[in-house]
Model the fold of this input.
Amino acid sequence: MSSSPKTQHTAQFLDPFTYLTLLSAVAVFVCLVLSPIFMRSLVSKTIPVDPNVPEQLAPIQLKKEPIGALRIDVSATISDNHWVTYEIQLKDQQGQVIASGIKQAWRESGTWSEEGESGIWTEDDLVGGLDVRPTKEEPITIVLDVLEYTDISGKEIDQPVPFEVSVVNGAVDTRYLWTGLLGATFLAFLAILVTPFSGKVILDKSIGDSDIGGRGILGGAKNLIRVTVKIKSDEHSPRSLTVLLVINDGNGEQLYSNRHPVHLSFNKSEGGKVTSAKGTLTTFFILEPRSSYGFHVEVTPDITVDRTRLIVRDHCKTLFPVSVILLKSTQ
Amino acid sequence: MTKFFALLAILLAGTTLFYGLTQQSALVLRQEKQDNHWIRNGTQTSGSYRGNAWVASPTRQTYGGFRGGGSGAGK
Done:
C-alpha cells in the first residue's frame, strides 16, 4: 500500500545555533559601526610645540562614563628624515602629572633599486595616543612636550613641531571589537559549513555501480531525514542523470518512489577536455513512525556512472527552509 | 557541533564587546593596578603609579637614544 507523498515547505528544522553564531557576529559588527555615536569631540586643533618647552591645552573636565574612555590622539607633522620624541602628559588641578606617555615618531624616505627598477620610498610612524579612564571627576590639563627633535644625523633641530591634537570622550576600543568580529565571523562560517552535515549518519554506502540500497532504523515525528545521493560519472556523461529513489517500510511495502533529475558538474583537464563529472541529490523526509526503512537508489542511464554513494542522516538541521516529503507507514 | 560554535561565538562576542565598550585597555587614572592596559599607537607610558601618585619611570631620562624607527632599507 502506497500513500501519496505530501510535501511541506518548512522552516522548523532550521538550526538555531547556527543563527545564534551569526547573530553574535552581527551584534559585534553593529557595535563597531555604531561605536562613533558614543564619541564627543572635546578638542581638535593644531598647535606648534617648541622643543623642551611644554605646551598646555585648555583644561578639560574629566567625567566618568559608562561607555568608552577619554582618548588623546596626537599626530606630529615633521619633514622627511626627521625624528621626534614627544610626551603626552596629563596634569591635575595642582599641576601634578597624573599620567604620561612617550611616542617616538619618525618619517624617513630614500630611494630603492632592485632588478633594474628604482623609486622613492617613504615610511612614517607619527601618531601617538593615550586612552585614559578617570576614577574621579576632576579638571585636567593636557600637556605636549617635545623631548627630542633631530634629523637622521642626530643633529638637534630647534624649530617648533606642529601637532594635530584630537581629544574625544567616549572612545571605544575597536581593537577588541575587530577581534570579536573576526572571531565570531569565522565561527559563523564554520557553523554554516557544518550545518548540512548535522544529524546522525544511519546509512553510508558506496558502490562502483549505479544501484545501491540499504536499510536502517530511523524516523519518527519531528525528525528530519536527509537523503543524499552522490554520483561520480565518467567523461562521456550526459548533462544530467535521473535518480530513482525508492523508500520501503518494514514490511517491504513501497512508501515512496520518485525520479529526480540530477545536473552534473564537469571536471575539465587543462586542455578543456572533460575528465569526469559529478552530481548530488539532496532530499528531505519525515518518516512515521520510527521503524526500519529501506532506501534504494537507481541511477539511469547507468552506462557512464562510476560510483554511487547513498547517505541517510536523521535528526538533521538545515540552514534554510526546505521542502520535506511526509511519509506514513501504515503497518 | 553548531552548539559548540554558538557557545564560543557568544562568549567571544560578549567578552570583546565588554572589553571594547568599557575600555578595559585604557590607562586607569590614579590606580596602581593596571591589569588590562594595552598601549595604543606605540605610545609607551613613561611612568607608573605609586599609590595614586604618578612617578616618572627611570627610562624617561634615557629617551635620548632614539635613532628613528624605520628599517632604513625600505622596500
About this structure: Chain B touches chain A through 51 residues (CB under 8 Å). The first strand of chain B starts at residue 27 and ends at 28. The mean pLDDT of chain B is 79.
